[in-house]
Structure formats: structure tokens, C-alpha cells
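Below is a complete specimen:
___
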Amino acid sequence: AVRNLRKEASQLGLDPTRIIFTNLLERSRHIELKQHAHLYLDTTPYNGHLTVAECLWAALPVLTLPQGRMASRVSYSLLHSLDLHSHLVARNLEDYQELAVAIAKDWLRVNGNLHRGGQEGREPTKEGAAEEGAARQGGSAMRVQGE
């Protein structure tokens, strides 16, 4: 599967080394790794649920497209509770694609390289993730009680 996914990425003009595959990890490390991504593209018609909550906890923006089923509105609900819904919720598939491209282009314009904030080699910490993410996402950050 790894070989096929890398091959497909390459055929689409994407650098296949940017796709990261891991084995099972401790929860804290799993969430830390999400901090290396720039945008999570939520699935439809079934949202990521816990995956989306972890992305938001790691201060990773999530783009979603809510639909009719409850299972496709979970991400919207999470984004709405953080007051991020006006920027990260698409109205239709065309809007979803346009928002994804706009967010990616804006990230590249702001950062100018493939490393978040130009801080190559910086190992993210759980303590700094919420504050860093809050700044990127307009002041809101999700915290998991007991963490």
C-alpha cells in the first residue's frame, strides 16, 4: 500500500516523500506528529471524528464539508465550538477545493518554505502547540481535559 500511495502521489506531481507513514505510536507522539502538517482535509460523507479532535488539539487547521448525515457534521460542530467555522467549513465540493487551495497558497505566502514558520528542526511540544495553533487559527485552541 505504501508503494502504491507514493506512486500515485508522484503521478499527481506531488513529492512522495512528503507522505509520512508510521506504526502505532503513543498518543502524545501521535498528536505531536500532526503539528508537522499544515492542513487536514476532512473526509466526506463521514468525518474524522476523533482524528479531527486530535488535529484541532494539535493546532492543525481542519477543512470540512458538512452534509445531511450526522456523521458528516461532527467536524463542523467541533469547528463551530472553537469559532473557526467561518474560515474552515465549505458549502459544496467546489468551495471545498477552492478553500483547500487558497489555504495552501496562503500558508506558502506567509511562510515562504515547506517548514512551518521557517523553524527547521524545531521539535514541537504539547505545551506550545495550543498557543501556536491559537495564533494560527485566530485565537482559539482546543484543550483536552486531563492532558
About this structure: Residues 113-147 have pLDDT under 50 and may be disordered. The CA atoms of residues 133 and 139 lie 8 Å apart. The first strand starts at residue 40 and ends at 41. Helices lie at 2-11, 27-34, 50-57, 74-81, 85-88, 93-111, 126-136.
